[in-house]
Amino acid sequence: MALRTLATRKTLGGLGLGFQQQLRGLQTFSLPDLPYDYGALEPAISGEIMQLHHQKHHQTYITNYNKALEQLHDAMAKGDSPTVVKLQSAIKFNGGGHINHSIFWKNLAPVREGGGEPPKGSLGSAIDTHYGSLESLIQKINAEGAALQGSGWVWLAVDKELKRLVIETTANQDPLVTKGPSLAPLLGIDVWEHAYYLQYKNVRPDYLKNVWKVMNWKYASEVFEKECP
Ligand SMILES: [Fe+2]
């Protein structure tokens, strides 16, 4: 995940805030580049959605995450425990938003670059063993994603201890790790309205049906092989 010093983000000149933050060793996060053009996932996901989602939504999580971390650093330096505790929800929400979206961009790929091509190798075999077929797995994930109330994510993960695939959902921007430390995300689908509303309006199931056309199973397979050798 992209890290850089706060000094590069905020330099107020002379011995300004940026310099002080650099001295304190504070680090901040920055927006990762998309591995494809905004319009490259069309027609499954419009370029307009991708651009807004990446440049506005993901960037906002990062901005607020950095702000909360800066406030946390200051509160800890002052021994201000109420503020330290108060900041935890902002860190979870915005830090989770950064973690989840950073995975999501890698979960997708243009069709010409293999998006939508079914998984091969050990992940393909594991899916057949646990779910019967890829189609059956997709149906289950889509059903969970459609049923998720409000905003959140639906995940295909591997439980590294049990060595098996699991489908999970998380609310809001909770990252998958909140559901268990042994879970490693292979694929996460953003089911917040901002991920589909401009194109699919309120019909989340249509978005869920089409997102598989640009799913990057190659990425999921690589993670699976690394986490579950
Ligand atoms: Fe999102």
UniProtKB/TrEMBL annotation:
Keyword Ubl conjugation among UniProt keywords: no
EC number: 1.15.1.1
Principal place of residence: mitochondrion
EC top class, as a word: oxidoreductase
Name of a matching Pfam family: Sod_Fe_N
Residues that, per the record, bind Mn(2+): H53, H101, D190, H194
Residues covered by the Manganese/iron superoxide dismutase C-terminal domain: 119-222
GO molecular function: metal ion binding; superoxide dismutase activity
InterPro entries in alphabetical order: Fe/Mn_Superoxide_Dismutase (IPR050265), Mn/Fe_SOD (IPR001189), Mn/Fe_SOD_BS (IPR019833), Mn/Fe_SOD_C (IPR019832), Mn/Fe_SOD_N (IPR019831), Mn/Fe_SOD_N_sf (IPR036324), SOD_C_sf (IPR036314)
Keyword Oxidoreductase in annotation: yes
Cofactor: Mn(2+)
Subcellular location: Mitochondrion matrix
GO cellular component, one term: mitochondrial matrix
UniProt entry keywords in alphabetical sequence: Manganese, Metal-binding, Mitochondrion, Oxidoreductase
Entry function: Destroys radicals which are normally produced within the cells and which are toxic to biological systems. Destroys superoxide anion radicals which are normally produced within the cells and which are toxic to biological systems.
Family membership: Belongs to the iron/manganese superoxide dismutase family.
Protein known as: Superoxide dismutase
Organism: Ilex paraguariensis (yerba mate)
Lineage: Eukaryota, Viridiplantae, Streptophyta, Embryophyta, Tracheophyta
